[in-house]
Write a structure and sequence with these properties.
about 375 residues; mainly alpha; 12 helices; about 70% helix; globular; disordered N terminus; Ribonuclease
Length: about 375
Amino acid sequence: MAHIDDTSPRTDAPAPDDRRKPGSPPDLHRRTWWYVLRATMRQFSRDQCLDLAAALTYYAVLAAAPALLALVSVLGLVADGEQAVERVVGTMEGVVPPDVLAVVQPLVENAAGGGGRAGVALVLGVALALWSASGYVGAFGRAMNRVYGIDEGRPVWKLRPVMLLVTLVAVVVAALVVGAIALSGPVAQAVGDAVGLGGMAVTVWNIAKWPVVLLLVVVLVAILYHVTPNVRQPKMRWVSVGAVVAILGWLIASAGFAIYVSTFASYDATYGSLAGLIVFLLWLWITNLALLFGAELDAELERGRELQGGIAAEEELRLPPKDDRASEKREAKRQEEIEQGRRLREDAARDAREAGEPGDGHRDPADGHRVPDDRPSADRR
């Protein structure tokens, strides 16, 4: 995050792909890497990412139901949505805490219950579902702006379609992930026989599908990192260092959280029937923490590239904004309000002078006249 006014237009920022910058992370010096790692930890705390993750968790809860509706509707166009959901839920049993699964499973199954109406849902419901689910993407974009220390300068008519498009891409990628997970066992065998690939291809797919799923998720996170903030970043890399670290960190944290919940925690005794919901919210919070940490790492890697290239980025990242029209309008309104406040103060002072009221003294409560105040100035405070 920048240490100066975040509304600065950065008109003097060099091009995102300035030739002075190292081309890729392996080109960074060891000293630069140490600087990046330390700065990432500091900025993660300075940008209050714990609080940002909590806000994102709130938006994620609001977006969960419409996002699931859109996801199952897309699945219903290409496969048996209910069967795919059953396989995904079975896979999740070994990944997420049981209390989280107890909250997620009914939501997914209820959304899958309308699989027979997939076409109708796609036409009538998915648009509204995407609009609601895009609230999380918008909140994530605002968090990314804080990470990069820049104000949101894109007008609403330009920003909102971008967030809707990112939400649609996220739903499609999620559908591909679900489809890849569901395409296993008898389903994969049936597909292999239908296309004439035989059992060997099915065996290869059962091994290769997990790297494919991981790659799809990393690509989705990289899209979130690249598109949502209001900064023109260097040429997009479909697999960013921050995205990889975020996903791996999320997997490790989820596994550790599952072990903690099932072994040491006593949420049932503390929260009773709300235990599953509390665990689900904590898991979402951990997920958003991982995403924000990866974003901070990518931002500090860009700072390291700029510093090693001789660009003065120690105080703020030298990346130009994608748009600054909304920022300029807000700043103009802010200056107008400041000027109005100044006129109020000056008019009040002029009225007081015209009424013959000195600046010092106090009113006598008996007749309301102002009388001199002989106390030392320090005692008047």
